[in-house]
Amino acid sequence: MLVVAVLLVVTAALVWLGPDRATVRLLSLVQHHDDRRWRCIDRLLRYLSRPTQTRQAVAWRMASIELCQGIVAELATGRTPGEALARAASCLDLPDPDVLRPVVATARDGGDVATALERVARDHGSEGLSRLAACWRVSLTVGGGLAALVERVGRSLREAEAHRAEVASQLAGPRSTARLLAGLPVLGLLLAAGLGLRPFAFLFGSPPGFACIGMGVLLDVAGVWWTNRLVAHAQQAGT
C-alpha cells in the first residue's frame, strides 16, 4: 500500500509540473515491455508527454514565421526562389534540423518544392509550412509574385500567433490557480505536522490512512486533469 501511495504522489507531481527529460526517458524504457503494468505506465507517460508535443508545435509555428520572413528578405535581394529557401532555412533554429534538409535539397536541384514542403508539413503538423507550399504552387502555376504571397502568409501567421499568445495569457490565471489549489493539501499536511497533529503517522501507518491518501491523491489528480482539459478546450476555442 505504501508503494501505491508513493506512486500516486509521484503521478500527481508529474501531472502538476508537466513532463521533463526524466519522463521522456522513462517512456523510452517502458515502451519495449509486454507486461500489463508496464503498458499502463506507458500510456500514462505518453499522456504526460503531451505538453512537450505542444512546445514542439509552438516551435514549428515560430520557425515557419521566421522562414517566411527569411524567404521574403532573400527574394528582395534578387535571389531565385530555390536559393532564397535554402539560405533562409540554413539560418533557422529548428526543433529538428534534419526535417527541412530534403526540402532544401529539392530546392537546390530545381525539384518540386511544394510537394516536399507539403510532405514535411503533413508529418509534423505545421500549418505554416503547408501555407508556404500553397504559395509555392500558386506562384509556379499562375505566375504570381512569390515574395508578395509569402509575405502575406507570414503576416497572417504572425497575427494568428499573437492571438494564441493573448489567449494563453488570459488562461494563465486559471491554470495557476488550479496548480495552487492542487498543492494546498500538501501545505495542509505540513501545517498539521507543524502543529504536532502527526498526520503522516495516520496516513502511512494505518489502512484508513492509506485509503484517505489514495483517495485524496486520486481526487487531486482528477481535479488537475479536468482543469487542464477545460483550459485546453477554451484555448482551442479561442484560436
TrEMBL record:
This is Type II secretion system protein GspF domain-containing protein. It is found in: Cell membrane. Residues 73-190 form the Type II secretion system protein GspF domain. It is a multi-pass membrane protein. The chain crosses the membrane at residues 180-197, 209-226. It comes from Sphaerisporangium flaviroseum. It holds the Pfam family T2SSF. Keywords: Cell membrane, Membrane, Transmembrane, Transmembrane helix.
